[in-house]
Amino acid sequence: MIKNICLGILCFISVQLSAQGEFYPPKVEISDYTLSKFLTELTLAVGKKDKDFILEHLDPNILNSFGGDGGIEEFKMYWDFNAESTNFWEVMENILLIGGPSFDASKDKNSYYLPFTFTDWPDQYDAFEHYLVLGNNVNVRNKPTTENSEVLGQLSYQIVKISDPDGEILSENNDWLNITTVDNGLSGYVYGKFLISPIGYRLGLIKTENGWKINMLVAGD
To answer: What range does the record give for the signal peptide (predicted)?
Structure first.
């Protein structure tokens, strides 16, 4: 009897440890047809790089940064929106691909924010020091390269701490980042495109008399 209880406790601990730091995308449920329709239209517009659609659906007081005054003209300047080299489309595509939270779980039915890595981030993990490994079976390597490097392990939707070997937090502009799992069980390099910061770019939408509008596109804190 005691042996069975001990085995049960060990199994429970094993499950808890294996689940530590896991953060999977939520099941997205959107009962508001106008919002789901707008998200579809927005996704198509981003794919076609439809500037007119974006400008028509910006809130007049859109927040572009935490240091600016906001507004559509500031938006155009901030993103260099008329230039072919603007990275606006890439940023928007990444946000939409990551996806948002369940709209139906929100108390405010007149606003929606995404990605879920911003809205649902677990409080116990410092947003400035941790990222999410977004993907299944993402390789962790012993060197920041795919050439002549060893795969130390793989991670799927795990929250990890970002640092270099000396403990300094790295910029998300690096192609490869040094990571350590939250249980300190695995350290190595992960390619940057698989790492998402909870305080990276996020998108805010509000419901107005004229339909849904983009009222926020910011990064940082």
So the answer is: 1-19
